[in-house]
Amino acid sequence: MPKDVTKRRPRTRAALLRAALATFAEHGFHATSIEQICERAGYTRGAYYSNFASKEELFLALFDEHSERTVRRLAEAIDGLAAEEHTLERIAALASRVEPDERDWYLVTTEFTLHAIRDPQAAWVLARHDARLRAEIARGLTSVLRRAGRELTVDADRFARLLIALREGGLAQSYVEPEELPPGSLERDFLAPLLEASTRETAPGETDRADGTGTAEGAVSRTDPGPTP
Q1: In whole angstroms, what separates CA 19 from the centre of its chain?
Q2: 3-27 vs 102-118: helix axis angle to the nearest 10?
Q3: 219 and 139 in contact (C-beta within 8 Å)?
Q4: What pLDDT, on a 0 to 100 scale, did the predictor assign at position 220?
Q5: CB–CB of 219/142 below 8 Å?
Q6: Other CB atoms within 10 Å distance of the CB of residue 180
Q7: Is the pTM of this model over 0.90?
């Protein structure tokens, strides 16, 4: 592949992803055509198919990009805390933040999840991506809790599922009644008590390094997902 094409490819892919997210959010995943995405991004169908085989593959690329960005933002915020700020209340406050652009992603991922519930193949593929995200959350949470002198008393993957359910269920209600329940409200109110009830203090002298790294970002670094079916 010529060098100029190689250099352009990441820019083309990024532009298609941005256009897809905006178009999916505006028109819906099923109603959006590949032509609409290409027109919005300013590229041809050929450019699209040189990056993605289908709309489903494009959505999964969006899923991984969003997951990585969300984890990175939280990790950077946690790494900026002073030692005395590593408390369950502070961790809960950071985890409850909802970025302004989250609504578009929520609309897109909710529709695709409904599609996956109806389609066993889509469900199988989405479950694999969900599992990788939960693994990142579980590793990061374990690391952060150790800094706070605590450890989970329940299975970390199951607890990650609960955190995701709280997040997504809360956002569903918040986007319907934003004034009654601002985004992140349920997490701000209940995440710290939930962490308190699901953890215990660690023995004195225990390390705060969960997996050989000294940062939250290192603890939740994205694993190689391997080829996507």
Answers
A1: 19
A2: 80
A3: yes
A4: 43
A5: yes
A6: 9
A7: no
